[in-house]
Amino acid sequence: MTTATVNGITIGYDDEGSGEPLVLVHGHPFDRSMWRPQVEHFTATHRVIAADLRGYGESTVVPGITPLPVFATDVVALLDHLGIDQFVLGGLSMGGQIVMECARMFPGRLKGLILADTFAQPETEEGRRKRHQMADRLLREGMSGYATEVLWKMVAPHNTAAGEHVSKMMHNAPPEGAAAALRGRAERPDYTGTLEAVTVPTLIVVGSDDEYTPVKDAEYMRDRVPGSTLVVVDGAAHMPNLERPDVFNEAVAGLLAQT
């Protein structure tokens, strides 16, 4: 296990390959292993960094509330520790919102963006209520019930191998870390203005069958990031990087060729 101590916590991470840095941010309630198909593929051409966010995987669990800016500063603090100044940054779902927060806070560090199965609009009052309710439930019951309920929304039912991986990640996620992230996302701002200010090559990816962040959310981002590319992955739900890694990797390779 490779770890670094930054921002007062320990972060577990993978740092493989060489060349221009590609940094990947996982979603909720997953860990860095969700990026294994991308790490294995792109280390032939790039230095690929995938870390566990605070509260997940092998990183420190911090109960309470973890706002998106805290996740973003953790990401950049790790890259500072590794001596990486500029990088292509990609994230899926909550990870995509952390990427948008990095674009808001640290735009000069970014050489390219990958926004997968995520959305830019601010949280609604109903959304805030549901996230706090779910956080309470995870602390009360643990992850198993939630993980079983949402599995076949995370991945399309025919993607059984991806489903096994996703199920394992969700069941293994620490409830305190997942609840803190949910409470932080309940305060999510509107990233529309951030997207309109993006000046680096940007790839937007979404599964055709994603119920959490449907294609219309991806189109909303595509229409606001100047010169961005949208790729819809047929037959995938919320985890196209695991469900259709060949298609996802081809899209990312196209983005990397522009940076």
From TrEMBL:
InterPro entries, A to Z: AB_hydrolase_1, AB_hydrolase_fold, AB_hydrolase_sf
PANTHER family: MONOACYLGLYCEROL LIPASE
Molecular function per GO: hydrolase activity
Keywords: Hydrolase
Keyword Transferase carried by entry: no
Record-given protein name: Alpha/beta fold hydrolase
SUPFAM superfamilies named in the record: alpha/beta-Hydrolases (SSF53474)
Domain AB hydrolase-1: 22-251
Transmembrane segments: none
